[in-house]
Amino acid sequence: MRNIAAALAAILVLMTAAVRLQRIRDDRYPPPETTEETLYLTSGGALQRLLLMFASALITQMVQTAACNRHHPVHQQLCRWMLLSLDRLPSNQIRMNEKLIGNMLGLTPENVTKATSVLQKAGLIRYDAGEITVLDRRAVEKRSCECYAVVKRESDRLLPRSVEMAQ
Fold this sequence. Notes:
Elements: H1 2-28, H2 36-42, H3 46-71, H4 74-86, E1 93-95, H5 98-105, H6 109-121, E2 125-128, E3 131-134, H7 137-143, H8 146-166
Antiparallel strand pairs: 1-3, 2-3
């Protein structure tokens, strides 16, 4: 959770910097008859929109993760986390030991070991020496709770558009 808080703080700093840069530019070349409020709301550039969309997707993920950690079994939380990680990786492998996974999910390494064992016995993953290989992504998606789909849908809605706008 500390990593998420640090990322959110960094986003807020970047958003503040983007707003300040935009205001400096707008002060030099103000459109006719604008107020401070309309400048702030209407003059946001691509960077500001990108940061706002990223922040929105991150907040969705944080809120959904908090709910998931409170209400769903450990193996479903692990599936959600693996799927979200794989969405950002070029392969089906995640290199991380039980302690780090536990830190990410707020679990003890023992609970992570139990959850990986359940998924490994089901033939969904292979876990060996700090490396998770997802063998059957569709089955992992079925085993995951609905939290993965919520976060994925919101990220897909916000982030592809932000990439197009940045180009």
